[in-house]
Amino acid sequence: MKRNHYMASLLLAGAVFTSVGMGVSLPGVSTAYAAETTSMTTMAGTINVSGNGKLSVKPDVAYLSIGVQTTAATASKAQAANAQKMSKLNNLLKNKWSIADKDIESVQFYVQPNYSYNEKDQQKVTGYTAYHTLQVTYRNMEKIGALLDAASTVGANNVGSVSFNVENTKTYEDQVIQKAMADAAAKAGSIAKAANRTLGDLVSVSEAGVEAPPVYVSQSTAMESARADKSTEIEPGMVELNISLNVQYAMK
């Protein structure tokens, strides 16, 4: 009897221990499942959209490509004659048009031989051409044509493309960002409505900066204008500022 009673006690104790152990382990499983479910709900309850903002503004800076090229019998003569013309051009830009040194930059300089071809002599050097090109930064949009005309009178005969831009895009950054955020909110609202949900709080925003692609006047147009009998007219047009935002919203 004592032995049977002892065994019964052991069995009872084992049963109690097992039930306690199950009572401890189940909440752990339940908590892990709940955490996983919450994470999935958070991911599924968001909307990611791209908001685009655009703003057209008048350019406030122009970059002019103005150069001189001279052909002569020898390389030294071509270079010397070209240097004289370039000296006059620099004097005009700095002294008569008050353009600062920092806004005048040499971007191209070289001397190359010119060739003729025939069956008898094959390739023959006929002379040399010297090239020297400046990039000029200029901020008076109304006088660009007059500047090109003046440059041509002192020997500038290689006018390249003219590009226009906004020198400091941060001036318009707030306006472009507001447009991009409004675009993102409209897109997110439409998506939430289509999903029979409502738009929740803003979760995150990231952006890559404001872009302002320059507006170009082609080289052929600029040269034709500068060589024409009438005064050169250059129209700067408008510069379009762009920004793209990656925006995340919660859904309710």
What does this structure look like?
The structure is a single chain. This protein has 252 residues and is an alpha+beta fold. It has a domain at 61-166 and 217-230: Alpha-Beta Plaits (2-Layer Sandwich), CATH 3.30.70.2970. The protein has five helices and eight strands, in the order αββαββαβαββαβ. It has helices at 2-44, 75-96, 144-153, 173-194, 219-227; strands at 46-57, 61-72, 104-118, 122-138, 158-165, 199-207, 215-217, 239-251. The strands form two sheets. It has a five-stranded antiparallel beta sheet. β3 (104-118) and β4 (122-138) form a beta hairpin. It is elongated, with a radius of gyration of 37 Å. The two termini are 68 Å apart.
Overall geometry comes to elongated
Task: State which percent range the strand residues make up.
Answer: 35-45%
Please give the order of strands in the largest beta sheet.
Answer: 3-4-2-5-7
Helix content: 40-55%
Spell out the CATH superfamily of the domain at 61-166 and 217-230: Protein of unknown function (DUF541), domain 2
Outline the biggest β-sheet.
5 strands, antiparallel
Distance between the termini: 68 Å
pLDDT < 50 stretches: 1-43
Q: Write the CATH architecture name of the domain at 61-166 and 217-230.
A: 2-Layer Sandwich
Rg to the nearest angstrom? 37 Å
